[in-house]
Amino acid sequence: MSKRINIVLPEATVQTIDRMARPGQRSRFINTAVQHYVANRSVEALRAQLERAAVRDRDLDREVAADWFAVDHETWKKLDEQPMAEKKPATRGGAKFTSRRSTRP
Questions:
Q1: Is 105 helix (H, G, I), strand (E, B) or coil?
Q2: Which residues contact 19 (CB under 8 A, 6 or more apart)?
Q3: 23-57: per-residue pLDDT in tens?
Q4: Backbone angles phi, psi at 50, to 5 degrees
């Protein structure tokens, strides 16, 4: 079932449609374009694309995580072996944190 509607488009858009669609096929072209847009830009479509990418890239993600695990493990091992006297609290640029909250209402 089809329904007739009236829409207003910029002249440049109409010219583009006329270049792309065969004579008498504007409605079909616009319908196809809208369906394509919805299929590729809706929240559900984007979520599905992310899920497909996650499944596709899972092996690569695991490989990268495994590569970095060795680096993380070595760093934590060095930190754990460091005597408590040598351990200093983490500060930015060696400076103390001096932010103060205002007590004014």
A1: coil
A2: none
A3: 999 999 999 999 998 888 888 888 888 999 999 99
A4: -65, -40
Question: ∠ CA 35-40-43 to the nearest 5 degrees?
Answer: 105
Enter the tokens of residue 79: 């930190």
CB 29 within 8 A of CB 21: yes
The domain limits of the chain are 11-80
Nearest alpha-carbon partner for 17 in 35, 31, 3, 37: 31
**pTM of the entire predicted model:** 0.45
- Running DSSP on this structure, what letter comes out for residue 70? H
**Which tokens go with 105?**
């209402």
List pLDDT tens digits, range 63-102: 888 888 888 888 888 888 877 666 666 666 655 555 555 5
